[in-house]
């Protein structure tokens, strides 16, 4: 239901005053001109709705769509109900349409026939594969060591922490390297095999360049030193889905829990522990300190 505006009430009062005392006195009383009063008196039919402002939109335009163009647009839209604006415009241009894409957009919006994007398919997660024995699959990840975790002779240098976690037993192995490369990954793998008490069947990593060249800019997917080492040792290499760190969730959660302590905000908790890297000669030790 449309509401009655203050302007409509003003015009109604103006017309009633003019009918009682005349147009000239009404113009003086309401501080307006007589032409304004005469115009609204001609429009007034006894109802207050006749005093509402009408639309100033023109009824015709010399450049409006012709009936042939309107029929063409409706035909193409009926055959392509989910086509976007650009695709629909290209299809129309191939059939002789000469209007701009902005003009087509305004027409589609006015007619209410813009394409409706279909809803995205519901994500159905796959059931988690439970490991049955140690060594069946080990998750590996690498992170940069913050400067606040470096003490003694290690201060001022850059280190990268490699972490491996067995999915079945949660056995954890951590080692730090000064180089973030596939060579460091291969060295970490060899040290991991020496430390792990059981045979390793599968190693799961993300798609970083230190593990694979799956998304390298060269366009050639060749084996890295890390992958060649896995192949020589007869270990399967499993890559997770791109931009899905939750698939490597155990090692990702472990790395986040052992981050340096940051100031707590509202509703946040302190981390469980931090890692201190001590440089002792050529040996880099990783010490886990509980808080």
Task: Report strand order across the widest sheet.
Answer: 4-3-1-5-6
- The total count of helices amounts to 9
Order of helices and strands: HHHHHHEEEEHEHEHEE
Number of strands: 8
> What is the mean pLDDT?
85
The N- and C-terminal alpha carbons lie at a distance of 66 Å
Beta-sheet strand percentage?
A: 15-25%
- Gyration radius, rounded: 37 Å
Q: Which descriptor suits the 3D outline? A: elongated
Q: Let me know the largest β-sheet.
A: 5 strands, mixed
Low-confidence stretches: 260-291
Describe the structure.
- This protein is of the alpha/beta class.
- It is 34% helix and 16% strand.
- It has nine helices and eight strands.
- The strands form two sheets. Strands 4-3-1-5-6 form a five-stranded mixed sheet, sandwiched between helices. A three-stranded mixed sheet has the order 2-7-8, with no helix packed on it.
- Helix 7 packs parallel to helix 8.
- It is elongated and about 110 Å long.
Structural features:
single chain; 291 residues; alpha/beta; five-stranded mixed β-sheet; three-stranded mixed β-sheet; 9 helices; 8 strands; 16% strand; disordered C terminus
Describe the structure concisely.
The protein has nine helices and eight strands. With 291 residues, it is an alpha/beta fold.
Record the SSE blueprint.
Blueprint: H1 6-21, H2 23-30, H3 34-43, H4 67-79, H5 85-94, H6 101-111, E1 138-144, E2 150-151, E3 160-166, E4 172-177, H7 182-195, E5 202-205, H8 225-233, E6 236-239, H9 249-257, E7 273-280, E8 283-290
Parallel strand pairs: 1-5, 2-7, 5-6
Antiparallel strand pairs: 1-3, 3-4, 7-8
Helix pairs in contact: 1-2, 7-8
């Amino acid at each position: 239901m449309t509401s009655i505006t203050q302007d409509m009430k003003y015009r109604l009062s103006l017309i009633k005053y003019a009918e009682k005392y005349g147009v000239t006195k009404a113009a003086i009383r309401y501080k307006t001109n007589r032409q304004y009063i005469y115009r609204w008196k001609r429009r007034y039919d006894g109802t207050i709705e006749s005093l509402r402002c009408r639309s100033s939109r023109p009824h015709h335009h010399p450049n409006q769509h012709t009936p042939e163009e309107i029929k063409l647009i409706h035909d193409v839209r009926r055959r392509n109900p989910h086509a976007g604006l650009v695709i629909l415009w290209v299809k129309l241009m191939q059939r002789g349409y000469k209007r701009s894409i902005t003009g087509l957009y305004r027409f589609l919006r006015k007619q209410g026939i813009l394409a409706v994007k279909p809803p995205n398919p519901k994500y159905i997660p796959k059931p988690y594969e439970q490991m049955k024995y140690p060594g069946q699959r080990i998750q590996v990840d690498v992170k940069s060591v913050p400067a606040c975790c470096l003490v003694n002779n290690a201060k001022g240098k850059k280190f990268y922490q490699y972490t491996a976690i067995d999915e079945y037993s949660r056995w954890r192995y951590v080692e730090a390297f000064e180089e973030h490369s596939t060579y460091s990954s291969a060295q970490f793998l060899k040290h991991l095999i020496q430390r792990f008490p059981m045979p390793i069947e599968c190693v799961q990593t993300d798609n970083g360049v230190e593990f694979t060249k799956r998304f390298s800019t060269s366009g050639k997917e060749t084996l890295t030193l890390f992958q060649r080492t896995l192949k020589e040792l007869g270990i399967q290499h499993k890559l997770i889905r791109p931009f899905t760190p939750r698939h490597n969730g155990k090692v990702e959660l472990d790395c986040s829990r052992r981050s340096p302590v940051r100031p707590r905000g509202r509703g946040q908790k302190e981390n469980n522990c931090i890692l201190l890297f001590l440089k002792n000669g050529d040996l880099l030790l990783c010490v886990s300190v509980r808080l």
